[in-house]
Design goal:
93 residues, mainly alpha, two-stranded antiparallel sheet, 4 helices
Amino acid sequence: EPVSEKDIAAHFGVSRTPVHQAVLRLADDGLIDIFPQSGTFVARIPRRALYEAILIRKSLEETTVRLAAEQADAADIKRLEASITELSLAEAV
């Protein structure tokens, strides 16, 4: 996926300098690939890191759902049920 520093800066209402610095940092972390005269793109997850990324995401999602369920009140449950119904209707289309 291409990354546009100009669009990101406009979206967040900041100058391009902090966005550029953030992009450089993400590139240092291997999360963005910068190709001179070609563009800046979100980096692919290396196959060797994919399994670990899936495990981390699954763990985070499970923990988030558990904590949300523990703290949910009746109104939260009603909103969740409404969201599930809406999703089911959208999938049927």
